[in-house]
User: Fold these one by one.
Assistant:
Number 1:
Amino acid sequence: MFKLVNQHMKSLFVFTFLFAVIFGVFAQESASSFQGISRFATPAEVKAWDIDVRPDFKGLPKGSGSVEKGQEIWEGRCASCHGTFGESNSVFTPIVGGVTSKDIEIGRVASLTDPKQPQRTTFMKVATISSLYDYIYRAMPWNAPRSMSADDTFAVLAYLLNLVEIVPDDFTLSDQNIAEIQKKMPNRNGMTQDHGLWRLNDKPDVHAKACMNNCAQEVKVTSFLPDYARNAHGNLQDQNRIFGPYRGVDTTNGSPKSIPTSIASSVVAEKNQDPSVLFRSNTCAACHAQNTKIVGPSLESIKSKYATQANAIDTLSAKVKNGGSGVWGQIPMPANNLPDADIKKIVTWILTGH
Ligand code: HEC
Ligand code: HEC
C-alpha cells in the first residue's frame, strides 16, 4: 500500500514538474512574440474581476449586514427604481411578491403556475440566494454598479429576504449563515437538472439541417414587423449600442428594402464629438429614447416642453449634471458625471437638433 501511494506521489510530482516547465515556456513565448503590446494581468487585476459567487458559496466575500441597515440602503439607493417594498414594476418586473409561507416551507412557488398571478417576481423564480448576492454586488444600483461593499450587499439582501418574510426584522445576514437561508428560498426546488442540457445523450431541442452545398448566396429576410408596430419602442437605430458591427434598423420609416448588416465601427471614432454619440455613450440612452418614455421622458417631449423657453439650455444642463425629480414624475434622474461642455452639447442637441 505504501509503495503504491509512493509511486502515485512520484508520478504526480513528475507531472507537476513537466506542466510547470511547459507552461513556463509558453508563458515566455507569448510574452516575447508581442513585445511591448501586452502584459499579463496582475493578481490584483484578476482578483478585481473574479467576483462570481457560486451556489456552493465559493467566491462569497466575508461580511454581514442587518435588515435595518439594508432598509436604509434600499430607500436611498434602490427604492427609486424598484419601489419602497420592491414591488414596483416601473423599470423592471417586481422583485418581491407572489410568494407564500407554504412556498418557503416546501421550496416550490405555487403562483408560478397560477394564471391569475399578474407578474413573475424575482423571488418567485430565483432558486439560489448566491445568484441574488452575485447580481446585486455586480450590477446594482443600475446607475452605479460595483459601488456597494460586501457588507452593503449582505444588508440590502437581508432587507429583501425580510420583505419576503424569509427572515425576521432583527436578522443579520452574513457569510456564516447564508447557507441556512438558502434552505428557505421559496423556489429552491424549482431548478431541475432533469433535462437535455444536463444529459449528454439527449437530443437537442432544436432541429435544423445546416446547408452544406448549393446554399443561397444572399440571405433574404421574408418577414418583418408590420409597419404600425415598427416604431412601437422608438427608433431602434437610436437605441443601438455604438460599438460592434450592427447599427440597428431605422424604424421611423416603413418596411426596409434591405437590412444594413455592417457599418465600419471606425465611423464611431470619427463621430466621437457628435452630440448624438455623446448622448448614447454616456448612458443617457438607457433612460431616454427619441419618441417614447423609458425611465425618463422622451427627447421629443423634452424638446416640445422647453424649445421656446429662455435659458432652457442652462437650466436643463444643471439638472442633468445634478439629477433630480418631480418635473416628469416621481422617478429621479441620477446625477450625471460628465464634463459640463459635453452636457451642454447634448442638451443643445436635444432642444435644437444640432
Ligand atoms: C436606476 C434604476 C435602478 C436602481 C437605482 C436599482 N435598480 Fe435594480 N434593476 C434595475 C433594472 C433596469 C433591472 C433589470 C436589469 C436587467 O435585466 O438588465 C434591475 C434588476 C435588479 C435585480 C434583478 C431582478 C431579476 O429578477 O433579475 C435585483 C435583485 C435588483 N435590481 C436589486 C437592486 C438593488 C438591491 C438596488 C439598490 C442597491 C437596485 N436594484 C437599484 C434598475 C435599478
Ligand atoms: C437612470 C435613468 C436616467 C439617466 C441615465 C439619464 N436620465 Fe435624464 N431623466 C431621467 C428621469 C427619470 C427624468 C425626469 C426627472 C424629473 O421628473 O424631474 C429625466 C429628465 C431629463 C431631462 C429633463 C429635465 C427637466 O427638468 O425637465 C433632460 C434634459 C435629461 N433628462 C437629459 C439627460 C441626459 C443628457 C442624460 C445623460 C447625460 C440623462 N438624462 C441620463 C432619467 C435618466
Note: Residues 40 and 46 are 10 Å apart (CA to CA).
Number 2:
Amino acid sequence: MRLRSTVAGGLLSLALLAAGCGRLPVEQTERYVPPDQVTDFHALYNTNCRACHGPAGENGPAMDLANPEYQALVDDATLRRIISNGMPGTQMPAWAQSAGGMLTDAQVNAIIEGMRKEWSKPNPFQEATPPAYEQPSGADAKTQTADVKQGQQLYQAHCASCHSGHARQELTSPIYLALISDQALRSIIIAGRPDIGQPDWRHDNGQLSPQDVTSIVAYLSSLRTNTAISAPPVPLSSRR
Ligand code: HEC
Ligand code: HEC
C-alpha cells in the first residue's frame, strides 16, 4: 500500500512536471521588461511612433518613414538628431532622455537600425541624384525674395494642378503651414509620399532642380503667418 501510493505520487508529480514544462518558456518570455530596457525595433516603434507615422511606417498623419527614397535621402546623424531632439514648433516630439523624452540613446539607435533594416532598399533613385536633404539656410534678403517669387511660379506650374480645389490638402493655407516645418515640406517634395500618392521631385511635367525645390519651400514658408502659428495644435493621442 505504502509502496503503491509512492508510485502513484511519483507518477502524479511527473505529470505535473510535464505540464509545467510546457508552460515554463512562455512565462519566461512574458516576463516584465522595464521600458528603458526594451530594444526590439517593433516594440519601440509601435509604442512610440506608430500613432503618428502609421502602422509599418506608412499611412499615418505624419511622414511615411517606410519610404525607401526618404531612407536613402537622410543620413544616420540627421535621424539621430531629429529623433532625439524632435522638430521644434511641430508635433514631432523629442525622444531622447537628454532632451526630456523617454528613450535612451541605445533605444534611439535601435530604432534607426530597425528602420534601415526594414525600410531601406538599395539604390531607390536609380540613375537620378536627388536634391540635398537639407534646405540651404542663410540666404540674404535679396536671394530670399527672388526665391519666393520664383517658387510661386514653380508652385503654379508643378503643384497647383493637384493641390487646388477641395480634393487635396490646401498647401498654401497658413493653418496647414503652421503645423509643418520647412524641412518636412522639403523631405516630402523630394522623396514623395508613395503611401498617399504624392510624387517625388521627378514630376511628370518635368523634374524639379535642387534650386526649384529650395524656391518652392521658400515660397510656402513665406505664406506662414504668426497668427496661424499661435493657433492651438491639433490634438494627437500618442505619447503615454
Ligand atoms: C500628381 C498630383 C500631385 C502633384 C503634381 C503634387 N502633389 Fe502633393 N500630393 C498629392 C496627393 C495625392 C497627396 C496626398 C493627399 C493630400 O494630402 O491631399 C499629396 C500630398 C502632399 C503633401 C502632404 C500633405 C499632408 O497631408 O501633409 C505635401 C507637403 C505636398 N503634397 C506637396 C506638394 C508640392 C509642394 C508639390 C509641387 C512641387 C506637389 N505636392 C505636387 C498629389 C500631388
Ligand atoms: C505626435 C506625433 C508624432 C510622434 C509620436 C512621432 N512623430 Fe515623428 N514626426 C511627426 C511630425 C508631425 C513630423 C513632421 C514634423 C515637421 O513638420 O517638421 C515628424 C517628423 C519625423 C522625422 C523627420 C522627417 C523629415 O522630414 O526628415 C523623423 C525621422 C521622425 N519623425 C521619426 C519619428 C520616430 C522614430 C518616432 C518614434 C520614436 C516619431 N517620429 C514619433 C510626428 C510624430
Note: Residues 1-5, 7-12, 14-22, 228-232 have pLDDT under 50 and may be disordered.
